[in-house]
Design goal:
The chain is an alpha+beta fold. The chain is built from five helices and six strands, in the order H-H-H-E-E-H-H-E-E-E-E. The chain is globular. InterPro entries: DUF4440, NTF2-like_dom_sf.
Length: 152
């Protein structure tokens, strides 16, 4: 019994406990990371609603390794993803007004975040659109960016 208690205490000292919602050893750090990601999503919503797809894309990783999974399949790369957004949403009527509902935001590992949410586009002229998304984020060079987006 004494060995079991010692082993349990040793494992707690050796392996840091990650919070379920934070994913990092420090709850203050987890809260800061959560705020940073939510702020990027808020900025993306504002940029979209202002008609600026190029600014909306600032939240994405500017890399050929970015992946976007949608109804048409997988798109690889930042430029191809931007081009697809411009093609699919060529004007303000098609873009409409965006609203995100964040359903889950977790940190499964340090510098990695996972977001599940819903999107809704209010588009009086062409019909509303809505669906769900999952976003995989990485903190690269001290900046959170979306490295993979699956929207449907």
């Amino acid at each position: 019994m004494k060995q079991l208690v010692l082993l349990t205490l040793l494992s707690l000292v050796t392996f840091p406990v990650f919070s379920q919602s934070g994913g990092t050893p420090s709850s203050a750090s987890a809260a800061a990371n959560r705020r940073a990601i939510l702020q990027i999503l808020k900025r993306q919503t504002e940029d979209w609603n202002d008609g600026h797809i190029d600014k909306f894309m600032v939240g994405y990783w500017q890399s050929d390794s970015l992946t976007f999974v949608g109804k048409a399949g997988i798109t690889y790369g930042y430029r191809a993803t931007l081009d697809n957004y411009i093609k699919r949403y060529p004007n303000r009527a098609s873009m409409g007004s965006l609203k995100f509902d964040i359903l889950q935001l977790d940190f499964p590992a340090p510098n990695v975040a996972y977001v599940i949410g819903r999107f809704h586009l209010t588009r009086p002229e062409v019909g509303d659109a809505s669906g769900h998304f999952t976003l995989l984020w990485r903190k690269i060079k001290n900046r959170w960016v979306i490295v993979s987006d699956h929207s449907s």
